[in-house]
Hints:
The complex is a heterodimer.
Chain A: E1 2-5, H1 6-20, E2 24-28, H2 44-48, E3 53-55, H3 60-72, E4 76-80, H4 91-98, H5 101-104, E5 114-119, H6 134-138, E6 144-146, H7 151-163, E7 168-173, E8 181-184, E9 197-200, E10 205-209, H8 212-225, E11 231-235, E12 238-240, H9 244-254, E13 257-264, H10 269-281, E14 290-294, H11 304-310, H12 314-326
Parallel strand pairs in A: 2-3, 2-4, 5-7, 6-7, 10-11, 10-13, 13-14
Antiparallel strand pairs in A: 1-8, 6-12, 9-11
Helix pairs in contact in A: 1-7, 3-4, 8-12, 9-10
Chain B: E1 2-6, E2 16-22, E3 29-30, E4 35-41, E5 44-49, E6 54-59, E7 66-68, E8 72-77, H1 82-89, H2 126-135, H3 153-161, H4 175-180, H5 205-220, E9 223-231, H6 233-250, H7 257-270, E10 276-278, E11 283-285, E12 291-297, E13 300-302, E14 305-306, H8 314-329, H9 335-338, E15 343-346, E16 366-370, E17 374-380, E18 383-397, H10 403-418
Parallel strand pairs in B: 12-15, 15-16
Antiparallel strand pairs in B: 1-8, 2-4, 2-7, 3-6, 4-5, 6-8, 9-18, 10-11, 12-13, 12-14, 16-18, 17-18
Amino acid sequence: MAVKTFLEAIREGLRQELARDPRVIIYGEDVGVRGGVFRVTDGLQAEFGADRVMDSPLAEAAIVGTAIGAAVNGLRPIPEIQFADFIFPAINQIVQEAARMRYRSNNDFEVPIVIRAPFGGGVRGGLYHSQSVEAFFAHVPGMCVVIPSTPYDAKGLLAAAVDQPDPVLFLEHKALYRSVRAEVPEERYVIPLGKADRKREGRDVTVIGYGLMVGFALSAAQTLAEEGISLEVIDLRSIRPFDREAILESARKTGKVMIVHEDNKTGGFGAEISAVIAEEALFYLDAPIVRLTGPDVPAMGFSPPLEHAFMVTAEKIAEAARELARF
Amino acid sequence: MAHTVVMPQLGESVTEGTIGQWLKKVGDSVEEYESLLEVLTDKVNAEVPSPVAGTLSKILVEEGALVAVGTAICEIAVEGGADDGEKAAGESVEPTPAPSPAAAPAPSREPAAAKAGESDRGRYSPAVRRLAAENGIDPGALTGTGSGGRVTRNDVLKALEEGAATVKPAPSATSSRAVAEPAGMEIQGARAVIAEGDEVVPLSSVRSIIAQRMVRSKATVPHAWLMVEIDVTNLANLRNRTKAAFKAREGVSLTYLPFMLKSVTSALRKVPIINAQWNGDSIVMKKRINLGVAMDTERGLVVPVIRDADRLSIVGLAQATQDLAQRARAGRLTMDDLSQGTFTVDNTGAVGTMLTYPIINAPEVAIVTMEAVVRRPMVVDDMIAIRSMVNCCISFDHRVVDGADAARFLRELKRSLEAYGPDTEL
């Protein structure tokens, strides 16, 4: 098994999908000649041709809209939104059309597209290159929202997303692209959507997260283990669908739950997890559910101190979990 | 700075109260002494005045919640510096406990055995409650290791491991709770059958308190009952002769009630066991005679109390009852009006009944009714005569009062009411 970065694992996944299924096409802003602004699609146009890996106009609504049309007509497009911050012009296409096509056509049409979008902050991106957009889409029935945290998961979840007959938003945290490396199998493998991964067993506090937060939570767990506090870390991997059973099982076990995400607190996905636990595991709770999230401010600042103030970090997770354990 | 308002002590024996209605919203400005909220204790709404002038910044206890005296219920932002806070702390309201989580014990005015460090006394997480209930242990008996001495789930699990499962629930639980749910029996009342078109009216706070107290009394007090009939012809004549002058002189109508109250106080003096309270393993003989008078209002039944009724004349009793009745109807009774009763009189005759089986206002041991005064043919000196008759019924707690005592009390009451003559000076 080769050691790969998060970014390389996704590139390999895309290459395998292109090679495996002639219906798969990739397009987006700068994904072809340039190979993507992050170089995720580097080399794919040279390998598979400009008919299957092509540059698109700078028009997100058109990127997703044409992908929907292509999907309804039998292709399996993997369009890229260059930064998740720019997905909003396409929200009408995604929410009104892609997510509802199966329902609206009484099951005659389906939209098997995988919209890839780099998201998240901590990379000096400022307002337009740091946003977390998952909660907007996790709200929509008919959508899948996948957020991998490791190279292994990224490749396996990408394969599952391509197999999925309904639209998938595949969110890749920019800070993970080159910062994590792990062994990734050469062959194609599928990690089913909606299955959480218990990254670490613990007994005092459950930390639930996804994407970049998972690594931070694991590092916090390492710190607290030295203090005799045992954290259980759950990686949701996809938030729609999400693994209720895994969440409830862990909540019942530890009785103390902390949810972490970089997205704002109000209406963030942590609220949904918190509600499910309150609805179904109330009598197992030994402390109020804690949400550790980005602040409810309009954007992540560009200046490093402001960015740091916004970001959820391993230190912040350790501090909040320590307090919860002591409660 | 913020000033924390705590649940005030609304009466000598009051340890907790239900938040009735917030009269101010968050963000409203309040004057000093302006009413902040209504609190229900006993059977009335008492208004809690603001101890300081400022802006209501935070409501900590929602309407309908039952809170112990001394619990923080809201915060008022006071303009200015710490000086205001110092001044405010000097007011009659309890100062807030220090903000540090490991603060000294909360003010322990609660009679229940309060342990040191229990700032969260009686508040347990759902997990702790469930584990404690499933295993029949009292979380209050455990030493909490959580923040501020909180009993954590792990504390319960540890206690279970150590075999503390045999610990019985503390018998010293607050009397109201313990009595309301006697001896672990859980008998569910019959549920209503709701058919189409039926209206379901939610319980008002007053209604639910009345319900709770009635169930408690009926479920825990062995009620026994007696009745006598009393000839009040002479009293009726006296009243008829003097009522116009009385009204002109005193400004209140002369009814039978003050005579009844006066006679009740003298009968209580002669049979003091009726003016007592049940205390579990003892009987408390009350020194003072404070008469509760049951009254019907739009909000429901209330029982305001005439303190030291035995010291009042007929005029004094007439004025006291009229005053309480007016304030009861206006919803303006205070906690003092409602507490410390030692015996209750129910003027059921006002609604025209002939015979009533009243429920005792526990922990008092008896309640007496005066039914309607009616003219009936009676045998007097072997002749039939038309007499004004009234029935008086007594329900009594048979743990404390025997039938002979109750009968003696009614005989004294009868003798006293029949002793009025047409020429008695008022």
